[in-house]
Amino acid sequence: TQLLEQSPQFLSIQEGENLTVYCNSSSVFSSLQWYRQEPGEGPVLLVTVVTGGEVKKLKRLTFQFGDARKDSSLHITAAQTGDTGLYLCAGGRGSRLTFGEGTQLTVNP
Amino acid sequence: KAGVTQTPRYLIKTRGQQVTLSCSPISGHRSVSWYQQTPGQGLQFLFEYFSETQRNKGNFPGRFSGRQFSNSRSEMNVSTLELGDSALYLCASSLERAGEGYEQYFGPGTRLTVT
């Protein structure tokens, strides 16, 4: 069974701070995706990383895929209250995705 | 393009009953996956359908089943409901693009409560 471990599980910060969320596995994935989920809604895809060492930026969010394609990180610069949500990483082989348990981020005004 | 739609959004059932949930994927997407999300277990994969065939299956009992129609719409069924089946059931559709992974687009989910 492929497992994805996310850390930290909970994170509460003040607006304007920076943060990094980690997603680690002992298995290699062909791709890794990050999602953000708000209460009562489905996850929304933020980014897909495919190549080992790849870095993608989405405004204040920076995503990195590890060289060995076993881990990933999400860095948020100058967090805003609108960034509050559950951040999920998901990896897999082919069409079957395995999700981490998520990082619940709260950005306080 | 319209997103993934799921019906109903909320459902309350009694133990022992059965339930059918529906999912309409994004137009042109042929793959539909179902997930169960609970606070304790997170997002767990149920099964995936592609072109009306089950392509992948998670580790859930046989009470959980699904199907896909020729228009890619999918249904999942849970029979003999148990209290532990209370969860948010999410459907995701995917457009497979070589070299870009299987990006999945989720619907809003169906919140099932079993009493």
Number of helices in the DSSP assignment of chain B: 0
Strand content of chain A: over 45%
In sequence order, what are the helices and strands of chain B, one letter per element? EEEEEEEEEEE
Question: Strand count, sense and closure of the main sheet of chain A?
Answer: 6 strands, mixed
> Uncertain runs of chain A with pLDDT below 50, 5 residues or more?
none
Task: Give the helix tally of chain A.
Answer: 0
Distance between the termini of chain B: 37 Å
Q: Helix and strand string of chain A, N-terminal first?
A: EEEEEEEEEEE
Largest sheet of chain B: 7 strands, mixed
Which spans of chain B have pLDDT < 50 for at least 5 consecutive residues? none
Counting DSSP E segments of at least 2 residues, the number of strands of chain A comes to 11
The Rg value of chain B, from CA coordinates, equals: 14 Å
Give the strand tally of chain B.
Answer: 11
Global geometry of chain B: globular
- What is the mean pLDDT of chain A? 92
Largest interface, by Cβ-Cβ below 8 angstroms: which chains and how many residues each? A-B, 25 and 28 residues
The termini of chain A sit apart by: 40 Å
- Overall structural class of chain B, as computed from helix and strand content, comes to mainly beta
The Rg value of chain A, from CA coordinates, equals: 13 Å
Assign an overall shape of chain A: globular
